[in-house]
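Q: What structure does this chain adopt?
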Amino acid sequence: MIPPDHPRYRSLVIRELLAENVKKGIVSLEGLTAQGRGEAFDYFIGERTTASAILAEKTAAALLLTARHPVISVNGNAAALAAYEIAALQKASGALVEVNLFHRTEERVHLIEDLLRSAGSDIFSGPAERLLPLSHDRAWCRREGMFSADVILVPLEDGDRCEALVTMGKTVIAVDLNPLSRTSRRATLTIVDELTRALPNISEACRTITRSEREELKSSLDNNYLLSEAIREMTMRLSHALD
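A:
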């Protein structure tokens, strides 16, 4: 049992949750490493949603709401951490939800889909094909899902698929706590925030932004600015860490 008054309570609960989902086969062992790396960067921004992240989250809502065929791509970590938040975002945005995995087995795909369904998501499932220009199993997706999408939200992404999707002409929204990663630098829009903070903010923006705000946010999108601001916010916090 983790005492609720522990200063690292939320972090420890997340670690236990991921460990439990490794045992269930939903999260890969490699996913634990990815979580630890992200948590380190979250320390740099004070485990809070910054001003630049709020702007990015509103812009993500604008992109999803104005898309022809938006898709939320989900891996094991994202499902384990934020199944209910993904369901809420699907409801707010109207996007399809599709599972896509690097360490892919059909059993794992079904386990993750079942977890997402139990949280309230309507999963776009069925036979997958090797449709993306990648040499690993992230290439597998559904022809009428991710392959046909114009806007894709890819939380906790790996950089080569992000780059491949952008090269295919898709608008890619990434949620990545590391502003220096290949994913962050290749995405159309990067949200430098922790997943379970970012998704509810996007959902709220989907419910509240006006049509004129959507167009203004899209036209003013500058991912280099957002990444620079995230780095600046991290640098400022680090420079005052011992004050």
